[in-house]
Design goal:
- Helix content is about 5%, strand content about 55%.
- With about 575 residues, it is mainly beta.
- It has a domain of about 230 residues.
- The strands form eight sheets. It has a 24-stranded antiparallel beta barrel. The chain has a two-stranded antiparallel ribbon with strand order 1-2. Strands 8-9 form a two-stranded antiparallel ribbon.
- A hairpin with a 2-residue loop joins strand 4 and strand 5.
Length: about 575
């Protein structure tokens, strides 16, 4: 066990208790009995994620690294005085980060630091900052620790709002990669105009906002000696225009994005002189939301919208000693393209999950793609209380339909080339159709039912089989009183292809608002391979007191994609103990 990491974690926990206890004295210093002088405010938090990987004779594919004890730790602290705020984030990955995190997250170092000034009109930041333009298809710098993402920009950003009806943003920086930054310079401008007041739309119960964004990425092509006479430039420009309209219960949002000609990576993830294309993306979202009824439609088409602060990925050796590139760790992505599919809470429904296909890929003659087209529809309705279907307490029904395809057109493997149509659809990547029903019987019983139909073509999305699956889940929650409750869930998957049929179940007991425990198991009983017919058993719980929360889990991790908000990373099969701690002060 790595005692250096343990001592660091104990030190962080002790520091948080001291900081929390002394918070009032830091904020305010007594001058006399009636007056207090403001000395600023100190605040922050600590998060520690620890795993100890164990040998498991019942899980032959489990990965047990040489350093079995691994942890990701974050200490962030901010100090605010009037209009000024300074902050930093120290990160420790001791002795190594959790399995399949970016290898650049190594050791202990200062990951984030910034100085910010903010008043009614100006918001100025020097150092690291996060930012998103529009829906993020040309720029989103963000952090998600569960996915191992921190794409903060290090440089400067200025926001200016001359009034309540417009806001402008200008920025420059280099993107974070590990504890350093990439070679590409990123600069951008964003403008939002809130037009309802100017057009007297509020009187008609309407609202209208329009926006424009520009992002430039400059990376010298001299960094790539194989390029002799490239068809693209050092500077890549990306533009976005959007409009957001609301009228009563109806809303509509549209955004168009364009990326100038940029190099496309070949099968070896290298740039070549001739392989270059422009990129574009169009998204449309509209819907209607009123009491007991909701409809939301999301449509998107993307073509060659891979946008990186460093054009070619770096190659690492992963925990199994195999080569892996930095794009696999979601490193150096300038933009953000979540999958527009339903985020299920079912364990079995998250075995086959879709990732947005924003880039061009020519892997082999059978796997050639240039982007994606498709969408999803969400429908919600609540049957009124007292009706036949609503019963005494009403009944909620949720319908979801999502379909995603490759772009239709002509593809040639050698030389890699494509000519795609704007409308239409190519080979289907993924579909997910589901119905969810929630019913409150009385003050003690709440019931839920799900049916999900999935289509997942692994042949086009990383290799494997074509999978067709039907999933049924049923759940019930019994409330003993206002604090104590017991929840059961049973799940069944019938699948054709890959590992075939699964069965699962879970039980969770909440003692009160502070303490809960759970047990769950998913069993791949239908696999053709005997070594895959295993139970993925987990037992754990969480305890919260004040600003502190500790969660402990022991069991097996199913290998595959772990997704947060439609963005995914791969995790290997493993078995062991997991401890999560976080607090704020």
């Amino acid at each position: 066990m790595n005692f250096k990491a343990v001592l660091l974690g104990l030190f962080c926990i002790q520091l948080s208790f001291v900081s929390f206890a002394q918070n009032d004295t830091i904020e305010l210093q007594k001058v006399d009995e009636n007056k207090k002088k403001y000395k600023g405010r100190f605040y922050g938090g600590i998060e520690s994620n620890i795993q100890y990987y164990l040998e498991d004779s019942g899980l032959e594919s489990a990965i047990v690294p040489e350093d079995q004890f691994r942890s990701n730790n974050y200490l962030y602290a901010n100090y605010n005085y009037n209009r000024w705020t300074a902050g930093m984030q120290v990160e420790a990955y001791e002795q190594n980060a959790l399995l399949n995190y970016n290898p650049k997250f190594e050791g202990t170092n200062l990951g984030i630091y910034f100085l910010n000034y903010k008043d009614e009109k100006w918001d100025i930041t020097l150092g690291h900052f996060y930012e998103q333009f529009g829906n993020g298809l040309i720029l989103r710098a963000w952090e998600d620790r569960a996915l191992g993402i921190n794409s903060a920009l290090r440089g400067g950003r200025v926001k200016f709002a001359p009034n309540y009806n417009m806001e402008f943003t200008a920025l420059y920086g280099r993107q974070r990669s590990g504890f350093g930054v990439t070679a590409g310079d990123i600069f951008g401008f964003d403008a939002d105009f809130f037009l309802a007041e100017y057009l007297n739309l509020y009187e008609k119960n309407q609202d209208l906002t329009i926006g424009f964004s520009y992002v430039g990425r400059y990376e010298s092509l001299s960094n790539y000696p194989q390029l002799q006479n490239p068809e693209f430039d050092d500077l890549t420009n990306a533009f976005s225009f959007r409009a957001d309209y609301m009228c009563g219960a109806f809303y509509a949002v549209a955004e168009a994005n364009y990326k100038s000609k940029d190099g496309i990576l070949d099968v070896q993830n290298l740039l070549s002189d001739q392989s270059a294309r422009t990129g574009n993306a169009v998204t449309v979202n509209f819907g209607y939301s009123k009491s007991r009824l909701g409809l939301d439609v999301n449509l998107r088409r993307m073509e060659n919208m891979g946008f990186y602060s460093q054009r070619e990925p770096e190659v690492f050796t992963n925990f199994e000693g195999e080569p892996q590139n930095s794009f696999d760790y979601l490193d150096t992505f300038i933009n953000f393209t979540p999958a527009l599919t339903k985020q299920h809470h079912s364990l079995l429904a998250n075995i086959y999950v879709f990732q947005a296909q924003h880039s061009v890929l020519f892997e082999d003659p059978q796997v050639m793609r240039a982007g994606e087209t498709g969408g999803q529809i969400d429908f919600f309705y609540k049957f009124k209380k007292g009706t036949f279907l609503g019963g005494k307490h009403g009944t909620h029904i949720f319908l979801n339909y999502s379909n995603w395809y490759n772009l239709p057109g002509r593809y040639t493997f050698n030389p890699p080339d494509f000519d795609v149509d704007f409308f239409g659809r190519g080979n289907r990547y993924f579909s997910d159709y589901s119905i969810e029903i929630k019913k409150k019987l009385d003050e003690t019983w709440h019931l839920g039912f799900n049916y999900i139909n999935q289509y997942y073509d692994q042949r086009l999305l990383g290799g494997g089989d074509l999978v067709r699956a039907d999933i049924v889940t049923a759940e019930a929650t019994y409330s003993f009183d206002r604090k104590r409750s017991l929840r059961f869930e049973l799940e069944k998957m019938w699948a054709v292809g890959d590992r075939q049929d699964w069965f699962g179940g879970s039980i969770e007991y909440n003692f009160n608002e502070n303490l809960s425990v759970y047990f769950w198991d998913i069993w791949n009983y239908g696999s053709d391979k005997p070594e895959e017919r295993v139970h993925y058993v987990n037992v754990g719980g969480a305890y919260r007191v004040g600003a502190y929360r500790v969660a402990v889990n022991y069991g097996r991790q199913r290998g595959g994609l772990v997704c947060v908000g439609g963005v995914c990373r791969f995790v290997p099969e493993s078995s062991g103990l997991t401890i999560n701690f976080n607090t704020s002060f």
